[in-house]
Amino acid sequence: MSPDKQVPERGSKREELRTVLAERYPVAKKGPIRSALINVWRLSFLTVVWALIGFWVWLHGRIRMPRWLGGDAREVAVRLWTITWLTFVWVLLWGTVSWANVLGGIGVALAIMILLPLPRVPVEGRLHPFVVLLILGRLMVDFCVSSAQVGWAAIRPGKPPLGAVVRVRVAIKSDMVLTLAVDYLNLVPGTMVLEIDHRRRMLYVHIFDVRSEARVKAFYKQVAWVERAFIRAFERDSEWHPSPYHGIDDEFHHVSQHARRRLEKQGVLERVDTSGPESQEQRP
């Protein structure tokens, strides 16, 4: 091979191919103005959806829903919120906000709710997002502090920590909110809920170290804060509406709300007392 003839490199061929494709199929570049308009459109879409949900929740106590929609405004609001959330997740998975993705998400959400229905969860209070954010922030702080305390107790010389099981009562009324509070305690290192007495709202919690009275008082203080925070986030007295649904272990969990009211009037079905735990009972 003569030195004048050189073999073209692969990189140059790729660059030439990219140049040819770019000339034949030009791609519109997103300028700063177009990107800003797209972001504003996405934010406006989410704002409108959130406003519609808030308006529907505001109307839940002022309108009477027909039976073919569920018969209860709160139940219909929960269904609409589920459809909206599943649609939002679907759009996030595709990564592009378009009418096709939105309509496809609504179709997928309806198919999931019809073909794969979940047991009815009692909706008895209202969600306060700012308090939930406060709970999440406090959870991160407690997680870091407790992790450092447990790690130091594991490596420091001396006697091993003294664990114990303590009993604490909480004033949380809903089983779902009580489960969230228990998850909070279980996520914090050093505490583990061993038993839950749903009837009396009693928790039996294992504490990592109770060698001093100050540690026990700190635990009770933490539980009191968790109790107040979850009540403020989900169970405010001014917004509490007891649900007629008992749960999946109820014989009438498949009965609609109108049928439940009819059975309650006939005396066949008794309404669940959700006013709180029975204070007169004590565990020996």
* Spans of at least 5 consecutive residues with low confidence: 247-257, 269-284
Roughly what fraction of the amino acids lie in strands? 5-15%
Mean pLDDT across residues: 76
Structural class: mainly alpha
Radius of gyration: 28 Å
Count of helical segments? 8
Cα end-to-end separation: 99 Å
* Biggest sheet layout: 3 strands, antiparallel
Q: Overall 3D geometry?
A: flat
According to DSSP, the number of beta strands is: 3
Question: What does it look like?
Answer:
By secondary structure, the protein is mainly alpha-helical. It has two domains: 32-115, no CATH class; 123-284, no CATH class. The chain is 54% helix and 7% strand. The chain is built from eight helices and three strands. The chain has a three-stranded antiparallel sheet, covered by helices on one side. The longest helix has 28 residues, at 32-59. Residues 247-257 and 269-284 have low confidence and may be disordered.
Search tags:
284 residues; three-stranded antiparallel sheet; 3 strands; flat; disordered C terminus
Quick recap:
With 284 residues, the protein is mainly alpha-helical. The protein has helices at 10-24, 32-59, 73-94, 99-115, 129-155, 175-187, 213-234, 257-266; strands at residues 164-169, 191-197, 202-207. The radius of gyration is 28 Å and the shape is flat.
Q: What's the topology here?
A:
Layout (H helix, E strand, L loop, with lengths): L9 H15 L7 H28 L13 H22 L4 H17 L13 H27 L8 E6 L5 H13 L3 E7 L4 E6 L5 H22 L22 H10 L18
Antiparallel strand pairs: 1-3, 2-3
Helix pairs in contact: 2-3, 3-4, 5-7, 6-7
